[in-house]
Amino acid sequence: LRAVADAKRAGASDALLTAIQESRLEKLNEAQRAAVEFAYAMAVDSESYPDEKFDALVKLHSPEIAGSMVLHCAFFNFHDRLIICLGTDTEKDCADKPEDPKIDLA
């Protein structure tokens, strides 16, 4: 899957990816677990995520990183819904390691 390839390129270990994929959050450290739980809540029911948990997320990471998590979750949830509406199969013909985009500035 493209998300796994992207996570590996970003430095995620196989053990971390396996724990997330198998929903074995007890294998994650507190900061990792809080981030995964936040992303899951934002994808499923963002209004159910209590302010107290978000405050803890900010303390575990930083205001800047927590803000970045909010932005990324919102963007990817929007992207997911757009892809669903368009009926696009994003994983079809997906390579394990997507190519980096090539930009011609000439």
What does this structure look like?
- This protein has five helices and no strands.
- The protein starts with a helix and ends in a 20-residue tail after the last helix.
- The model has no long low-confidence stretch (mean pLDDT 82).
- Helix content is 61%, strand content 0%.
- The protein is an all-alpha fold and 106 residues long.
Q: What's the arrangement of secondary structure elements?
A:
Elements lengths: L1 H8 L4 H8 L8 H15 L6 H10 L2 H24 L20
List the main descriptive attributes of the protein structure presented here.
106 residues; 5 helices; 0% strand
Distance between the termini: 33 Å
**What's the number of helices?**
5
Going by helix content, strand content and strand pairing, the class is mainly alpha
Order of helices and strands: HHHHH
β-strand percent reads: under 5%
Rg, Å, rounded: 16 Å
Give a short synopsis of this structure.
The chain has helices at 2-9, 14-21, 30-44, 51-60, 63-86. It is mostly helical and 106 residues long.
